[in-house]
Amino acid sequence: MAFALLVDPVPATRPAGTFGPTRRVDASAKEVSLLDLGVLRGDGCFETLAVVDRAAQEVDDHLDRLASSARLLELPDPNLDQWRAVVREAASLAPDTGEHTLKLVYTRGVEGADRPTGWAHLGPTPDHTRARRDGVSTVLLDRGYPRDIESDAPWLLVGAKTLSYATNMAALREARRRGADDAVFTSRDGWVLEGATSNVVIRRGGVYQTPPPESGLLHGTTQRAMFRVLADRGARTEYRDLRVSELMNADAAWLVSSLRYAAPIRAVDESPLAVDAEITSLVNESLAARRL
Ligand SMILES: Cc1ncc(COP(=O)(O)O)c(C=O)c1O
Questions:
Q1: Residue 182 to residue 184: CA distance in whole angstroms
Q2: pLDDT, tens only, 41-56
Q3: 223 alpha carbon – ligand 1 mean position (Å)
Q4: How far apart are CA 285 and CA 289, in angstroms?
Q5: Most buried among 25, 45, 63, 109, by the most CB within 10 A?
Q6: How far is the CA of 30 from the centre of ligand 1 (A)?
Q7: Ligand 1 atom closest to the CA of 196, numbered from 1
Q8: Is the pTM of this model over 0.85?
């Protein structure tokens, strides 16, 4: 089952309960203007949430990131009460059971119209069982900028989840060309950044570590949830810049994201990494059980 809800985004100041209804259309409907700047230039932002057994996961973290992406893009602040209602409506229309993907899209709208465009799309999530259990092989790919790019060149919009994902998709194709499943971006100056569509978490000396969000990457909702799961079990977690050599020599490492959850990294550039099956399944069971 797949459908989209067309949203008429209202200013952030409009009180809850005063938004117009969404319009439900078939997911393949040609409803967006060919002149929409989201279509023409990838000028907009999005969020991808998991909906499990009709419950959307990490809604607040996703909506906060939608708002922060919009701010970086200098789009009007989205009305988060309106988007929360859209998420609730879309999740309530999902099948009773199973994993579904909810994508929220917020664009600059049609050139000159001065009105953002919004929609939400829900469809089935591909089966990630194997990647979650057996892990993924990765290659290191140079992102082409230094780790501190965010403060030096804010116009590059690093840290915003923009619609311009052509680079991320090209990285995945390059990884597959090299015989791997996924890519890990590195900075020009030799630091680990993030996966093509995920965050990197490693464990070294019993401490779970991930690069800080201000180091040229997207702050992941799943990485935050994983750290909460681990901290609840008494594990130490920290944000720390990671050298490529620290990833290569990690005791275990994962690529984490909203739909695939924690996929163990079993190789980096053909150099094998140990898979910790026990922690991986514990983390993934906890991530799957979230109903928030
Ligand atoms: C570049 C990038 N980094 C990190 C993530 C992980 O974010 P989340 O855990 O919120 O899905 C994603 C998710 O799509 C991503 O595209």
A1: 7
A2: 999 999 999 999 999 9
A3: 9
A4: 6
A5: 45
A6: 27
A7: 1
A8: yes
